[in-house]
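Revision sheet: structure tokens.
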Amino acid sequence: MRTPRTSLVAAALLAACGAPAGGGAPAAGAASAVAVGPSAPSAAPQAAAPAASATAAAAATAATAATAPAFPAPAPCGALGCLAFDAPAQAFAHVLQGSPRVLAVGEAHAQQGAEGVPSATRRFTELLLPALAGRASDLIVELWAVDPRCKKEQVARVEEEQKAVTQTQSAGNQGEFLALGSEAKRLGIRPHLLAPSCQEYDAIVRAGPDAVTAMLEMIARLTAAKAKALLGREDAAGKMVIAYGGALHNDVAPRPGRERWSFGPELSAATGGKYVELDLIVREFIKDSESWRALPWYPHFDREAHPDKAVLFNTAPGAYVLIFPRSS
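Predicted:
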């Protein structure tokens, strides 16, 4: 979960980038912020010569298949379908074999004192996101865009309630989420923020000691609603929607008592099962603590084995955990 306060420039950057094509120009002041890369290629030339385009596409596909590098097969590494890959990109390609409509990526957030180790967000942005260019239409980032119509007192109260969750996290987390959105835009993938209403802020404040629970439920609800809206857009047909945030919200089979914190079951049903849950774990962040030990893959992970490999667990149908190689 991320702090709800996002700078106006950052909010404009992702909100404007996420506007549907043809939906009008960005608001004043957002133009320079959104000019972070080229727009998606125009489809006009394809429409002008469909037969030639199809022939060229088939030739390109054949050429790609002929020249694609032959990667070594992954090595089995234990229970839960464990496989050890030479590189994270190879493990990621394995996860995407089923061509999901929704790819729900969850991460273990970087904590204070870990700034010297590349975070899961940074690794996803640099190592995995490029493989989704042309395959994904949209990216939902777990950052909140504050509605300027909301009372400042509301926002301040929610921020105060959230400190219990965010105070131990790395100060660079929010910036890396914004960098992820910018890179997605450059690759032709439209990024979107979550946009809580003022009424939702009110509900969190009224929840009192249950404020954090109310926030977790709201994140799941807003993400599910946004993803379903994007899936229904005509120009996104056949492409996947990516949701990126904390590993708590993407569970396709949430633990008892946490069902309302996850959008997994709802989006799996909405896509006819074409939903993939992928948790990204930085090896150096794994601790011998109660919260880590509660994870289903933890008893089967040997941190001393395959330290230079990307380890992938298949914890349930459509659910994966990718543990990055040891940082160099």
